[in-house]
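In this supplementary section we document a worked example of the pipeline. Step one takes a protein sequence of length 183 as its only input; no multiple sequence alignment statistics are reported here. Step two produces a three-dimensional model, which step three serialises into structure tokens for compact storage. The input and output of this example are shown verbatim.
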Amino acid sequence: MIASLVLAALLASARPDVSIGLGNGTAEVDGRVTYVVEVVNRESKPVTADVRMTFPRGLARLQAEQGELGKRQASWSAELPPGPTEFRLTGVLKASPGSHVAATACLFTVHLSRPVSCATDIDAVAGQPVTPGRGVVNAVLVLAALASGAGASYLMARGRGTPVRPSSPSAGAGPAWRRPPRG
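The serialised model returned by step three reads:
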């Protein structure tokens, strides 16, 4: 138990002092987007690292400067000098206006299965949100209004009837309607 605590303390102290940030300029439909991943090495010597970025769906025509592209991820393996280092991923955004797109970048150093630091960028896509079926709903409402107006017009043009009492009690419980004579 003591050995595992000592090992955990050694691994924690072996973790380099590095951080990561992620940002982009804009998120517009059919607009060029450039994600900038900035890694800062606060150590006095270079640090070997892997930077992995998961980019949003709808990002097409991708280019990762000095990196590798996968289906949903870009990655860079680098020897980080002391100070800041930038990595760039560019593409064209194909998304619905009003939707949200998110990208995450993580920095791996000592353990390639556990990130040292991660950053996320979430943007609302510029433009008016598209509400599917809104035109159909509006058309139904207009047709309902026209139908009720047409029904009311028909009843008004038809004229008023006068109730007639049944001649015998067995003829019916409610009043019968008769059209008034024209003339």
